[in-house]
Request: fold
Amino acid sequence: MKLDSKIPKGDLATKWSEYRGTMNLVAPNNKRRIEIIVVGTGLAGASAAATFGELGYNVKAFTFHDSPRRAHSIAAQGGINAAKNYQNDGDSVYRLFYDTIKGGDYRSREANVHRLAEVSTEIIDQCVAQGVPFAREYGGLLANRSFGGVQVSRTFYAKGQTGQQLLLGAYQALSRQISLGNVKMYNRHEMLDLVKVDGKARGIIARNLLTGELERHAAHCVVLASGGYGNVFYLSTNAMGSNVSAAWRSVKRGALMANPCFTQIHPTCIPVSGDYQSKLTLMSESLRNDGRVWVPKSQEDAQAIANRTKTALDIAEEDRDYYLERRYPAFGNLVPRDVASRAAKTACDEGKGVNKTGLAVFLDFAAAIERYGKAEATSQRIDNPDKATITRLGEAVVEQKYGNLFEMYEKITGENPYKMPMKIFPAVHYTMGGVWVDYNLETNIPGLFALGEANFSDHGANRLGASALMQGLADGYFVIPYTIGQFLSNEIRTPNINPDLPEFKQAEDETKVRLQRLLDIQGNQSVESFHKRLGKIMWEYCGMSRNAEGLKKGRQMIRDLKKEFYSDVFVPGTQEEYNPELEKAARVADFMEHGELMMVDALDRNESCGGHFREEYQTPEGEAMRNDNDYTYVSAWEWDDDNPILHKEELQFENVELKTRSYK
Amino acid sequence: MRLTLKVWRQKNGNAKGSLETHQVEADEHMSFLEMMDVLNQQLVEDKKEPVAFEHDCREGICGSCNMVINGRPHGPMQGTTTCQLHMRHFKDGDTIVVEPWRAKAFPVIKDLVVDRSAFDRIIQSGGYVSVNTGQAPDGNSIPVEKDLSLMAMDAATCIGCGACVAACPNGSAMLFTSAKVSHLGLLPQGQVEHKKRTQSMVAQMDKEGFGMCSNVGACEVECPKEISIENIARMNRSYIGSVLSTDK
Amino acid sequence: MNWFSKFITSSIGKKLLMSLTGLFLILFLIVHLAGNLSLLSSDGGKAFNVYTDFMSNNPVIQTIAKGNYFFILLHAILGIALAVRNKQAKGGKYAVSPKNNTSWASNNMALLGTLIFAFLFMHMGHFWFQFKFGSGLPMTTIDGVEMIDAYAKVSAIMSEPIWVIAYLIGLAVLAFHLWHGFASAFQTLGLNHKKYTPIIHAVGKVFSIAVPAGFAVLPLYLYFN
Reply:
């Protein structure tokens, strides 16, 4: 299979605008006749569905949630990047493009990333117009903050709930189209299969989760916006329901899964506290603007803290190792996520972890509180303020900036982060890999598109903070509404697809059999327990660092687990009812296959880049060693039960020079 | 810690439900939902049907989880969703009663799962700014007073969980509706449609069968995002004002 | 007038009527108390009788009084209708009743209102009905005008402990009703403001205690004198 990325010719800076200006269009009268299915209504899906509706297409949108407003985009905390240069600090479209390419460790497409940087500014305008209450300065203009991996302030935010506000904006735009009749919304419906007719994606099989009924939905094309697969690790910052099934079912129908081993481990999450734990909670990256990461210099001190004979406050300044500031003086605590995560792992591997599991480092706000307190005292004209006053004033400033995050931390851990440094540890957060798409966001199956976290396109091997929201909305609002025309302009003579076609019936029957198989096993172990075991295997062998031996072993373990799953899982109830256990079982089954593919991909990529760190490929200082000669390609996998087939898309870098990423 | 749980079980919307008693061994560091996971694991091991409850992000923002714990939506802690409630707030030997949201407009689907689609329809009736993609002027073209923007944000922080309705002795959705009316109405971008929006959202809210506000304030107390009933006053004001001042 | 009927039948419209009638009745309470305080002047009931006579015969007052009866009825009927509808909307009770820091009064306005309505029947039966339709009323002549000796009537009733207790209970119920109702009326009108709402709440609490207490002084005063 030859992969054609369909990147238009021309100058990088003008490529997108020229392409947009010459793209095929669908006339308004024809749009009314064309149907589009959108699967998933998070940031990417809701924004796409709303925009399709505004353009006049007939849209059917699906979510397994009870409302589009529950999508996991809602949990994004820190912010959204845009090259507005409102701060006059030297930002530009090119700089955002460059930062993203570099942050992604040169494993993403130049053209896609540049387009992303270009439309980023329109996103902010659109969201402001929708009523997203972004943070503002006293003068009434938009405020910004900094995120990891960059040296400008380009992140727009709404307290620590930026994802929520952006999602609600998209949800409201979608709601408007629903009320106008342009979008038909199917809540509590889960896509369980993709239907192809004559090689083109023409519909889906969806299960009505309330009644259990399998429904056939037909359309001229299908748009996947079903999110990432971080939950393959069981413990992640993803919501419990986030799953790979819609994407994986498409892969089973011939779509390619690209770079599945590229997963992002976020450095600042609340550490695991016990075996019962169901999910991990992120502490926004924005905290690294003001928090300093450290561990004790000596193992004895670390042990004493873990045993609670000492606290962080007992460790003298000179006995602390602010390891990010030490190792990466140029970026300090604001190095990209993969770098920060790995550094935390290194510190803990050296026995300097600060809780009973040995898997935690400190994120300390004492210095920030003091700095802000002094500044505030000066601005309030308090001469010679005492320590208590400085602390009081400083805490107030920190509360204003991060209050809700601090509160959340305290709720979960029962510790007051104003007084005691936070304990944090890396956790699975985002998946850069996803369904392979070309420049039009179309997969190798004609008529099947993938947006947002579900595709692989823009973040390479590591995503920068505040870029996921940007990509989701860029894809949904400003890319797919144009590029889908390239496909649909050839479909204006296609009458509505008939859901009674044999392809639909066959897909429905197969789905029914697949679900029944799960129910018929009637074994002894819960779905949850299998998911937990899968997660442990993934984390152990395909987590923050990987090696060839472990990956081979991990793959075999997953295959064994899968066998056990299909002989001993217990799923109660029937197909024909509301059955959350059955939903979970089908998702875990897909996660197992996908997890296996991740191992295969990680094993194939004999280099370290971004979130993919192969122990065999590192510098003496423990930094990632990329291999640009052999691995400057996108791995696009065709699924096969035994030997997945690799298709390579070579990456061309015409504008950026491939360099060793350095944040020193 | 050993707990006695009395959990509402109801096969489906038409069936009659009742409280079922279980014993659960929990850890004080667990979240409430993780404690429910333990119960469900137990039930599955006994080949029984697990308790259906809604949950997703488990970090207090998606608004899925909805349990009335000992008579209080989201349990005893102020400003906390069920998923963020930790077992350290309970004692060994406690009996905990877990029930679904109760309101006519939120019919029970199964066990603790209720249908909150009425909220979606309220938003669909006008809880948006009518601006198509690509029509927007520059984000900084209209300055917005910082305090106003923060007030809008405080209202916009609503997660749509429905605790306000569950807590209200009247099953009223005024806090939810007014939070959206306030969020959009406070911002210049939302002002243009403010009157029309207020009227149609109130009309839809009434149509859904929610009760009427009698200013008890239970909604504000139980709201996990601590949204103030000032928003309700603001909506009252806008509604009365808009009816009296518009031509239609 | 389609808009108007739509307006007053909307949830907020109905609440607005509750609020406005409630506020009118609050004003009425002030006037009523001011007049009744003339019972305290030690002139053998002269001031009170003059006041009663004026209230019963002045055409303007009589018109306002009709309005007052109408508002009381409207407030009561609407209140009951809202309570019924709200009970339906709630659709069921929790097994554990919540303890959540909301005031007892606010959760029991309909009950309080019903008790007040019953109290009004007793009160009207004692005076208004007697003055309108009663026979053999005590009469008195003040400044050459013959009038009903309302003071004698009031004194007679308030000499019986059962009635004194009934009035005190009725006023206590009224106090609870006002405890929530006063501030609530402003909230319904949309008058909520960070600066002024605390004042409204404070005035409401003072009012809800002071006014019923002011009324309560009268039966006690008459009983013990």
User: Anything to note?
Assistant: Strands of chain C lie at 139-142, 145-148. The first helix of chain C runs from residue 2 to 9.
